[in-house]
Design brief:
By secondary structure, this protein is mostly helical. It has helices at residues 3-27, 36-53, 70-100, and strands spanning 61-63, 66-68.
């Protein structure tokens, strides 16, 4: 793998981690292990939209020698992390109310 491609991969991996952690902190639940799923949701959204589908929406910029739709890709990562964090929060809330007998 060329160095520029590795740099781009590390950049988007770091972005997915940061976006996932922010979604975990804002949306919840705030258990330490609950941060894993939003990070994976963010990374999966970046992988599916940016790499596999080849969608190109909006302006592109050159990043590490590659043409990247940075704004669209990051918005997809935010949306993916938010959906996963909210779903996780809803499932855990439902489990807690069901086990409490409410």
């Amino acid at each position: 793998m060329p160095a520029a491609a590795f740099q781009l991969f590390l950049f988007f991996t770091a972005a997915a981690i940061v976006i996932g952690l922010i979604a975990w902190w804002v949306i919840g639940p705030r258990r330490p292990l609950a941060a894993i799923l939003p990070v994976l949701g963010s990374f999966l959204a970046l992988y599916l939209v940016g790499h596999k589908s080849g969608l190109a929406v909006g302006p592109t910029i050159e990043l590490f020698g590659f043409e990247v739709n940075l704004l669209f890709d990051l918005l997809c990562a935010i949306l993916g992390a938010a959906i996963v964090a909210k779903a996780q929060c809803m499932v855990l809330t439902h489990r807690a109310t069901r086990s409490a007998g409410i």
